[in-house]
Amino acid sequence: MPRQDRAERTRNAILDAAAAVFDQRGFAGASLSEILAKAGVTKGALYFHFSSKEELASALVSEQWNFEFPQAADYSSKLQALIDVSHVFGQNLCSNIRVSASNRLVTEANVSSPAPAVYERWIEIVHELIVAAQEAGDIRKEWDPMTIATWLTGAFLGVQTMSGVLTNRADLRDRITDMWRIALPGLAAPRRLSRFIPAGTIQWDSSAA
Asked: Is residue 165 helix, strand or coil?
């Protein structure tokens, strides 16, 4: 096996092991020794890729967006695209250990020491889709796009956090759907409201539903 491929496999093994440990124990409770044992690599191999537990956690935080987003260009309705983005992210929180660990690390970091970059990026993603949806006539003109983007990002954060605490995300799909059922009548242009599907058009993996 070429050296570069072997190094990439080792790095991925470390990230997967770290994600599992961080997701279960959080940053403070995770130990490098447990991550090493789970990854099946040496301490030298870990430090070749990551200089510290903090750097390893930082690498996982960047995995927040490491999944295939629905492409807005594929949708005639940008608002439905946004609905589907929320469902795809929700499914990945349930089925993608790196995304789940990233989410926990970000949440913990913002409790102890505010680090708004991840939330700001989500607001930016949502804002872009809201602007496009409003220009297309899907969203009422009286709404300010940034106000909607900030509120929706916060609403989703609350929904997924509560679902994680109360049901270990077993009901996350239903909670996201309820969020949109509540939000859409106030956001969508009345003549277009019936076009939108709060449950999304993306099929959730049965293991993540």
From this structure: helix
Distance CA(144)–CA(15), nearest Å, equals: 39
Q: Within the chain, where are the H helices?
A: 3-29, 32-39, 43-49, 53-61, 78-95, 97-112, 117-135, 145-167, 172-187
CATH 1.10.645.10 fits 65-195, yes or no: no
DSSP letter at 67 equals: S
What's the whole-model pTM score? 0.88
CATH architecture of 1-60: Orthogonal Bundle (1.10)
Instruction: Please name which of 10, 23, 17, 18 lies closest in space to residue 55, comparing C-alpha atoms.
Output: 18
Q: What whole-number distance in Å separates Cα of residue 150 and Cα of residue 155? A: 9
Render pLDDT for 174-209 as a digit per residue (tens, 0 to 9).
999 999 999 999 999 999 999 999 999 988 875 544
CB-based contacts of 51, cutoff 8 Å, min separation 6? none
pLDDT (tens digit, 9 = 90+) per residue, 26-66? 999 999 999 999 999 999 999 999 999 999 999 998 888 77
| Letter string b/e over residues 122-138, b meaning 16 or more CB atoms within 10 A of that residue's CB | bbebbbebbbbbbeeeb
